[in-house]
């Protein structure tokens, strides 16, 4: 009983103290001791005192009564509070002892954070790049600690954030309580200024770590207009709504290898288990969690693994693929939206040129996607979870002549589920193809590096093939044989060829009656179409779009192409030697878009284009040699957009017939050319003359 009295007195002492972390800890400890004492006394009363009762009942009863009275007093003095809520630490953990490649990012992040105009800063990068480690290093920085002192608050948000819990944890950590009980997110946010004012006047840094997609509005709930208050948010997603952000790039190869070797050394002593590897994959997997209405974006991410490592992926090729695989619009708007989403989540990087108003939703020839090697391997890993015969996406990388074992061992391999098949070979590949049956493939991607390339025989049996992308990553232009196999494909709609010789194809040109679009990038064209075995218009009766880009030996547009009656889009860009368009261009009466961008030797447009009465877009931007517009341009009665940006020799007065362009809504030009339009703008009340910014674009150069 004497020990009990001492314990109660100590409890009364702490009851009068300040309710901070130390208070709750002591209260919890003494409450436990008091309960143990209560149990001991109870046992004593029920067991040991029975012996005393037998000896001296009245005396014992008197003692028991006295003890019970003491117990009543004792219970009254016991702190009548429930066990305290466990206090969650809001202090940043120390960074790992070994870090690499983060010193410069830490300095950049600190500089940005300490700018006067920055209150809310986003740190974004893919999972596993070191965001949390970088923030932990920042919290250990002498300048940051000297500025914020004990007011660095670190909160892990994660996938399902609970604002009530976060705010209550902050109150508990700083040893204070809100005025009102926190029963809702709204009350929690209303009570936050009380906490921030309580812990001042030193500056405050609130770190919200691991904010997920879908929770991007949460950090703004913590924004309060008080001085010296900063919020740093980390996320896998580079949310567009944040004005200030710092994108942490993945480690370069040298630093990544240093970290990897160090991990292996630690693994030898600490043990790297299969569970650790599963956790790593699970961490990456979380970056691919999309709502049901965006599940196609995950498929688009995995499609990026179809292209070779360390190579830029043309957005135009992706638009062709996804238009057929996922029925995205042919113009590319939805495809670009998906790529922006992947870019926002740091799963890919967009390299896009500056666009004028007329190009925003229509011109992507100079735009690319890049992807870190780790993410590419992860995309391939995600595509390879099923057995080979059940995969919807089959990606094969063949080194030298080492075909996959499963391919060599079977004379006929049935790939029944694959909708996309990608085969990449290197410069040493020379063996013949083994047979494959892939009846459901809709997109075939062939990447190679040799000067001569033979289309696989099994292509002939791909009855559902809609898109063929053939890319030569070698130094020289390649000759392709077996092109006649494509004649048996009833559903082939799109062909994209890169760095190949077209003459070898035209010698074996066969009817491709379903083909709608053909794209030629860095190809040798020359006079190939003059040597075709059949008329181009007969071989391609339903072709509606031709794209020719960076084909440097193209001097004159092949007149044979002017007979393709159904052509709607003709895009010839960056063909610097192109000097002439044939008069037959006027026969393309269904043409809706004519883009002749950066054809620097082209000196004039043929007068026959007056016949293109369906033409809505005419783009001759950066055609340096054009000095005048066609005399009868006014007969283009459907023309809505005219781009003459960079036509530096275009100084002559505009032709009178231009007043007949009643549908014209947008003219894009430079500042000097804009003056030519001033006298006639009054005749076009809805006309917008946009002065374009200068843009030097070298994105097409190989890495």
Give a short synopsis of this structure.
By secondary structure, the chain is an alpha/beta fold.
Strand order of the largest sheet: 9-11-13-15-17-18-19-20-21-22-23-24-25
Q: What's the mean pLDDT score?
A: 82
Considering the protein shown, what is the CATH homologous superfamily of the largest domain? Answer: Ribonuclease Inhibitor
> What is the helix tally?
19
For the largest beta-sheet, the strand count, sense and barrel status come to: 13 strands, parallel
| Portion in beta strands | 15-25%
Rg of Cα set: 36 Å
Q: How is the CATH topology of the largest domain named? A: Leucine-rich repeat, LRR (right-handed beta-alpha superhelix)
CATH architecture assignment of the largest domain: Alpha-Beta Horseshoe
Give the terminus-to-terminus CA distance.
83 Å
- Total E-strand runs: 25
Compute the number of structural domains. Answer: 5
Identify the overall geometry.
globular
Low-confidence stretches: 18-25, 49-58, 74-86, 267-271, 698-703
């Amino acid at each position: 009983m004497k020990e009990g009295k001492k314990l109660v007195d100590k409890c009364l002492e702490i009851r009068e103290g300040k309710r901070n972390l130390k208070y709750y800890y002591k209260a919890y400890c003494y409450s436990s001791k008091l309960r143990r004492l209560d149990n001991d006394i109870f046992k004593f009363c029920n067991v040991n005192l029975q012996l005393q009762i037998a000896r001296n009942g009245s005396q014992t009863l008197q003692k028991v009564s006295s003890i019970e009275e003491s117990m009543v007093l004792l219970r009254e003095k016991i702190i009548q509070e429930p066990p305290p809520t466990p206090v969650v630490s809001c202090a940043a953990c120390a960074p790992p002892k070994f870090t690499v490649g983060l010193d410069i990012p830490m300095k950049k992040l600190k500089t940005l954070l300490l700018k006067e105009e920055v209150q809310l800063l986003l740190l974004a990068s893919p999972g596993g790049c070191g965001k949390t480690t970088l923030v932990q290093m920042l919290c250990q920085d002498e300048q940051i600690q000297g500025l914020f002192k004990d007011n660095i608050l670190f909160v892990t948000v994660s996938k399902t954030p609970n604002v009530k819990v976060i705010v209550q944890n902050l109150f508990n950590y700083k040893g204070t309580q809100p005025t009102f009980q926190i029963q809702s997110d709204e009350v929690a946010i209303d009570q936050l200024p009380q906490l921030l004012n309580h812990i001042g006047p030193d500056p405050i840094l609130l770190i919200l770590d691991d904010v997920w997609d879908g929770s991007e509005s949460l950090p703004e709930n913590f924004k309060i207009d008080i001085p010296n208050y900063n919020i740093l948010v980390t996320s896998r997603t580079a949310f567009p709504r944040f004005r200030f952000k710092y994108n942490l790039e993945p480690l370069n190869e040298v630093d990544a290898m240093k970290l990897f070797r160090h991990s292996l050394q630690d693994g030898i002593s600490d043990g790297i288990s299969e569970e650790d590897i599963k956790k790593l994959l699970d961490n990456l997997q979380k970056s691919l969690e999309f709502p049901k209405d965006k599940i196609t974006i995950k498929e688009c991410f995995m499609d990026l693994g179809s292209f070779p490592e360390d190579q830029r992926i043309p957005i135009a090729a992706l638009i062709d693929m996804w238009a057929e695989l996922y029925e995205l619009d042919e113009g590319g708007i939805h495809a670009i939206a998906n790529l922006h989403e992947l870019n926002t989540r740091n799963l890919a990087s967009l390299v896009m040129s500056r666009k004028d108003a007329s190009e925003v939703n229509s011109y992507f020839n100079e735009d690319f996607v890049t992807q870190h090697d780790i993410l590419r391997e992860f995309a391939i890993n995600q595509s390879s979870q099923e057995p080979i015969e059940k995969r919807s996406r089959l990606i094969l990388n063949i080194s030298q002549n080492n075909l996959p074992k499963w391919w060599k061992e079977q004379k006929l391999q049935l790939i029944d589920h694959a909708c996309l098949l990608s085969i990449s070979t290197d410069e040493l590949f020379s063996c013949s193809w083994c047979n494959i049956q892939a009846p459901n493939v809709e997109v075939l991607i062939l990447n190679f590096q040799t000067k001569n390339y033979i289309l696989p025989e099994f292509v002939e049996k791909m009855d559902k093939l809609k898109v063929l992308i053939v890319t030569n990553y070698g130094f020289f232009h390649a000759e392709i044989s077996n092109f006649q196999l494509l004649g048996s494909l009833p559903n082939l709609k799109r062909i994209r060829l890169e760095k190949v010789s077209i003459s070898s194809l035209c010698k074996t040109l066969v009817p491709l009656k379903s083909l709608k679009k053909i794209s030629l990038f860095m190809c040798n064209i020359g006079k190939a179409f003059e040597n075709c075995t059949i008329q181009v218009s007969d071989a391609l009766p339903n072709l509606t779009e031709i794209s020719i880009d960076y084909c440097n030996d193209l001097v004159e547009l092949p007149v044979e192409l002017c007979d393709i009656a159904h052509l709607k889009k003709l895009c010839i860009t960056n063909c610097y030697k192109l000097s002439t368009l044939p008069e037959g261009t006027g026969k393309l009466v269904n043409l809706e878009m004519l883009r002749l961008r950066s054809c620097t030797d082209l000196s004039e447009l043929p007068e026959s284009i007056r016949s293109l009465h369906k033409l809505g877009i005419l783009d001759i931007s950066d055609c340096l040699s054009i000095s005048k517009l066609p005399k009868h341009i006014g007969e283009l009665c459907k023309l809505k957009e005219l781009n003459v940006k960079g036509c530096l020799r275009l100084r002559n007065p505009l032709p009178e017939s231009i007043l007949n362009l009643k549908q014209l809504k947008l003219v894009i030009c430079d500042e000097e050319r804009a003056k030519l339009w001033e006298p006639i703008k009054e005749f076009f009340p809805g006309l917008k003359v946009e002065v374009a910014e200068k843009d030097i674009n070298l994105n097409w150069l190989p890495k």
